[in-house]
């Protein structure tokens, strides 16, 4: 299944549920076959990013509040897929309506992950730069102390 590689966290669970509902709906409902294929393709393209986010959040000790937005979006998608799978072939109005909703879900999911992923990436890069700057300042202080110790040692030797 598409979500098996993601860890046991909430976002991995939501991803797995959405992926499974798409697979199940694709087997039972031929009305939205192309929609389900496109949505599944989108999910497969964002799967590695979600895996990295999940892994890095664990390494950074938490930050699960950021993944709540992703989780919520995936849960909404799962509900929509399950509803659309129940639409009968002869119900043209509902088929059109849910086809439009599924297409919008696919587009909005990709846009959502692009925008939020970019924002998280920018923020994380800034945090890294700040941490590097602080570490550089600490190294400068250590270097200054070592230099002072070396000068102090030279003075003692020359006396």
Automatic annotation (TrEMBL):
Residues 1-151 form the RPW8 domain. PROSITE patterns: RPW8 (PS51153). It comes from the Eukaryota. It holds the Pfam family RPW8. This is RPW8 domain-containing protein.
């Amino acid at each position: 299944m598409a979500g098996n590689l993601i860890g046991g966290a909430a976002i991995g669970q939501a991803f797995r549920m959405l992926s499974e509902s798409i697979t199940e709906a694709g087997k039972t409902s031929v009305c939205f076959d192309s929609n389900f294929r496109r949505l599944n393709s989108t999910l497969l393209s964002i799967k590695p990013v979600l895996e990295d986010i999940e892994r890095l959040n664990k390494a950074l000790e938490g930050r699960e509040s950021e993944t709540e937005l992703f989780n919520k979006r995936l849960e909404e998608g799962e509900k929509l897929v399950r509803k659309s799978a129940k639409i009968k072939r002869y119900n043209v109005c509902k088929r059109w309506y849910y086809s439009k909703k599924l297409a919008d879900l696919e587009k909005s999911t990709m846009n959502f992950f692009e925008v939020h992923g970019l924002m998280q990436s920018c923020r994380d890069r800034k945090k890294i730069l700040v941490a590097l700057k602080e570490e550089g300042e600490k190294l400068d202080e250590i270097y200054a102390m070592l230099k002072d110790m070396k000068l102090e040692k030279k003075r003692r030797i020359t006396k």
